[in-house]
Fold:
Amino acid sequence: MTPIHLELTQPPAVRAALQSRWPQWLAQAGLLAGFAFTIQIGLFGPAAGNANFAVIAVWIAWWTALKLVFIPFGGRAWCGLCPIPLPGEWLQRGALLGPAGRGWTLNRRWPRRLRGAWLQVGGFALIGLFSAVILTEPRVTAWVLLGLIALAMIASVVFERRAFCRYLCPIGGFTGLYARLAPLALRVKDPAVCAAHTEKVCYTGCAGGYGCPWGNFPAAVRDNAYCGLCFECLRSCPHDNLALSLRPFGRDVVARAGARLDEAWLALLMLGSVLVYTAVFLGPWGWLKTAAYSVGSPAWLGYAAGFVLINLGLLPALFGLAVRAGQALSGSRRPLRAAFAGQARSLAPLGLAAWVAFTIAFAFVKFPLVWAVFSDPLGLGWNLLGYSAAVIWPEISASSRLAQAAVLALGMFGAARVAVRTADQTREALPVIAFCLAAALALLWLLIG
Amino acid sequence: MKRETLARWTLGVLLAGAAVFPLAAYGLARRDVVEIHGRMAEAGGWTPAALTATVDQPLHLRLVADDVVHGFAVGGTDWPAIDLFPGRPVETALTFDHPGRYTFYCTRWCGLNHWRMRGVIEVTGPGAAAAPAGPPLYVQLGLDLDAPRPAPAAPLPERRPSASRGAALAVELPTLIEPRGKSPAAIWQSIRAQAANAPFNDAELWDAVAWLWRSQTTPTALAEGERLYAANCAACHGGAGGGDGVFAPELAHPAEHTQLEAGHQTQPPTAFTDPAGMLGVSPALLHGKLIRGGMGTGMPAWGPIYTDAQTWALVDYLWTFQFDYTDNP
Structure:
């Protein structure tokens, strides 16, 4: 059982607020309206990315908040608010609030062959290939958002539960991987109560709440990766046996059990992507930026080949060599696949630290743009919040460099700790720690060097 | 079921608000204002590029830069240029006194084809269009702007000619009906040929030519020329006139740059600091090149944009790359 340190749902008012559908639903509905607004501005607003509400609100404001606040502290807290799956889910349920009514769904089970994070690996890699365009072109941003909503709707109408969130959402793969580090967790309080309870309404659903939309059996949930914090189990459980709690950071990643190969590849892709993004968006290489932006050109094909080769070839190969070397050093007889998957857990703290460090450089300097687009969301020359063109643009100062180095050091420390915990012997972890250190130093060089 | 109905209404109101608000705002904002989008010339330039207006009636414009920083100005007027930052639309109103065809253009070096970012405003209404000043001087003088230019017939100066040194000499200067029709080398030759100037050496006579040139202009015109040069010419010809502006490498090798249209001919920009190239040409020829543009060289035509006084001010300023006009050389 996961040790619980501070139960947030102990005060009746907090429990009642989460058990009621309204607070969460209102936040979701408000965000969906904001999403519709954002898509419209993306399609019809200013053509310049840095002045379009859609680009700035999504890729600077939201993307920054996700990486700096939601994931490190709340795990999948964003997933509990995300508007993308809502239209499909409402269609599937035949109700906005429910549980009531008959939904529009074929209610198929997700194909066994497509389970795991493999499609998310592909989706995230695909976004990586087109990232320079998606992140800067408002029209493309809007179409990507619309496409995600459409995909989520199709998934909800064909399959049961939240197939989109669990298996398709490229951001969901990212979020789930790093959500394991967050202190916030929704878990059963006493598994014995669940074992004795025969109906398992947390999985099947009841009048109080839907069966887990993420397809989990809450008593079996050991980590944050696939818990979308939708609180349905909190609503359906007749024994009030679920609790939202705070625990120390990184509690879930040190577990050896349940490590999976698809998640290992996802972790490598996330780490490699942040290295490539740093080089493209923050590096001094204009030709690289141009290549990443010129989608379809021979230069872009070169960039795409490089992206795929680094993230799905070179990094996994190097990591595999490190794992193999660790086994040779320690004489461990664990199968390479299991060792690869287990040791890849150490990439989570480093990967999240890398994304935070990248975000500090990428988003902080662009933050005045957020103020500017919220002041003039339609690009009509309004000034609702008193934005001044003379605003002092933050620069990458010594203190932010220090913060980046500190975050990376923290991530490296976490990576080393997890590597040791997931290895048979300390010696086995050494090559993987060296791999992580090399990645951290490469990023530090790209960011600060 | 009541809860569900309430939820449906709430969602309906929220989504309708999100849908209607921007559409209504865009609809209202665009009612009586012409929105002009500026993009780099290869991406379309100004859209729309042709406008109409009526004399004495304000033309309301909303100017939007879509990609990079552009500037907006109307040729033949003294309205200050407006800087356009991407996504920060600027509203302005133009009221024309006279009918005519006005050119609006980009004032920021937004790319290699920056100067192609032009559009026209046809202004109709009562009153006479500004009367043309007659054919330009190069036409009156019968100069062929595209003829190959021979090297100056005079020996090139060994030091930089100084107007103030020239002023101190009692060189006998020719009386010219149209001094702007002659090149400095031609003037130098004519004063060298005068017996009264025999005591002066070649360099002193060049000083006298520099003085003659400075006496044809004013500090105000030179300042205006300097401003126009920095704004419109330095991108190609270089801030110091050396033909080495930021776009010069692309102009020297047009085939290597995809920004230029296929088959578009360009040449390296003229270096105004080169005495062999400058001292053999007349101000009238430079004036002609400026207003007509250099056929097949990439030099834009500035005739639709500068007033005649501005063009001459710019020509006057170009000579400062050859002659020292300061008081203490």
Notes: Residues 155 and 163 of chain A are 6 Å apart (CA to CA).
